[in-house]
Design a protein that fits this description.
This protein is an alpha/beta fold. It is built from 10 helices and 15 strands. The protein starts with 6 loop residues before the first helix and ends with a helix.
């Protein structure tokens, strides 16, 4: 009796879900869209449940499809790890590596790093997905996530790859028009460019005098808000207001005098950069090689 779910179905369905549409999956698999549709229909017929809701414009997973995808990704990752551990080429990184990073950091840093990584390790297939917010720690969609701040969860491994602090800044033109704030309280009368990301309190910043001094909570106001850090930096360069942004994102603008650091004697909570991955992936050569590669690339910043 033929099993209702076959091993090849797992890879097919995971690739289909990642592609997002039948036509995109067909292009990646180098087969026709009709062939993808037929294989999906056969898989659904064997299982006896619909896995994907199809419309003329898009597709979405059913509840059963989400369940199949979650288990398929987990099983495929375990199979890849098993092959690496049992194979003679265990020390050679290979296979699929799924990486997640935030939008701005992913574009400016992870994209170029991955380009160099695959030149050194051509047997690794990297899928990079950028998102505004980091995925949940229990999500097995990714092998490695690059995120800011250590995760409060012992079930994952978090390796610090770079130190990072958020700085207050503004353009010289804005300071010339509105004056330079001399204390945290002065920020309340300035136009503040806000970035809405993650679970951080919107429009509220915390500043500490030195590293161990008094911490003040400041409620800011402003007429510009975005969830994209690059846009916020551009608004600051255009002279629209004061911005609090990660040092890695504005370092060049500060060096060139396009932005000025404000209240340098005050510090915001650290936002160090970590590579986070499940404990069960620590023996995978591709994961170890990638995390080591990223850590080495950021070593001067970490030191």
């Amino acid at each position: 009796m033929e099993p209702r779910l076959q091993a090849a179905d797992l890879g097919f369905f995971a690739a289909l879900a990642m592609a997002g549409s039948l036509s995109a999956a067909a292009r990646e698999m180098r087969i026709t869209t009709a062939a993808v549709s037929k294989r999906l229909s056969q898989m659904e017929a064997r299982l006896g449940v619909p896995l994907i809701n199809r419309t003329t414009r898009r597709m979405s997973l059913t509840v059963e499809g989400e369940t199949v995808l979650r288990h398929a990704r987990s099983i495929l990752a375990e199979m890849a790890d098993l092959e690496q551990q049992l194979g003679a080429s265990r020390s050679t990184p290979s296979g699929l590596l799924r990486v997640n990073a935030t939008l701005g950091f992913g574009r400016s840093h992870m994209g170029p790093l991955i380009s160099r990584f695959v030149q050194q390790y051509p047997q690794v297939d990297v899928q990079l997905q950028l998102s505004v917010d980091p995925p949940a720690l229990t999500d097995d969609t990714f092998d490695v996530c690059i995120r800011f701040g250590p995760p409060p969860d012992a079930r994952v491994i978090a390796r610090k790859i770079a130190s990072n602090q958020r700085l207050l800044c503004a353009s010289p033109a804005y300071i010339a028009r509105h004056g330079e704030p001399k204390s945290p309280a002065d920020l309340a009368r300035h136009n503040f460019i806000s970035i809405r990301q993650g679970d951080e309190a919107y429009g509220v910043i915390k500043l500490t005098r030195g590293r161990t001094g008094k911490t003040e909570t400041i409620k800011t106001r402003g007429n510009l808000t975005t969830n994209d850090g690059s846009i916020a930096v551009q608004w600051a360069l255009d002279g629209h207001g004061i911005l609090m942004r990660a040092e890695w994102d504005i370092r060049d603008h500060l060096a060139q005098g396009q932005l000025m650091q404000l209240l340098p004697q005050h510090h915001t909570p650290d936002a160090d950069i970590y590579a986070v991955y499940p404990a069960q992936h620590k023996s995978a050569a591709r994961v170890r090689a990638f995390v080591d590669f990223v850590a080495e690339a950021f070593r001067p910043a970490r030191d």
